[in-house]
Design brief:
Helix content is 13%, strand content 43%. The relative contact order is 0.27. By secondary structure, the chain is mainly β. A hairpin with a 2-residue loop joins strand 4 and strand 5.
Length: 138
């Protein structure tokens, strides 16, 4: 009986392998966007009273920095490096900045760093713990 069970298991294994088409692999994830376009910086904030942010963008060539519903000032501080001042009331988990790049597929090489945060109204410096900036495809 033990020998018969091994034979049945072996036949089931052979049948399973034979039913697989070895020429095709399961599809991988779809390719990401490529070519020129905009990347977005998403803010996660621990505060509900942000009034101003100083952000550094870097990682490669970039241009046409834009902000939605926030006052924006920019300064080029190095090769492919910009400091961005944002004033207003940014919302948590929202896009605070968009910028143009020649290849959106290179999103992983771009960085957004929060240098300073200030409270709305008083512009008192806020601790940076808990803030997260993420660069994503737009």
């Amino acid at each position: 009986m033990r020998f018969r069970r091994k034979q049945v298991l072996a036949l089931m294994f052979v049948a399973a392998v034979a039913s697989c088409d070895g020429d095709e692999l399961p599809p991988g994830p779809p390719p990401g966007p490529t070519g020129p376009g905009f990347l977005a910086v998403v803010l996660t904030t621990p505060n509900n009273n942000d009034g101003a942010l100083l952000v550094t963008l870097s990682g490669g060539p970039l241009d046409s920095i834009r902000a939605n519903q926030l006052t924006l000032r920019t300064a080029e501080v190095g090769t492919n490096q910009y400091q961005v001042i944002l004033a207003g009331s940014p919302r948590d988990a929202s896009v605070i900045v968009r910028f143009w790049v020649p290849e959106v597929g290179d999103v992983a090489s771009y960085r957004a760093t929060l240098d300073q945060a200030a409270a709305r109204g008083t512009y008192e410096q806020l601790p940076l713990e808990g803030y997260v900036l993420s660069v994503t495809t737009d």
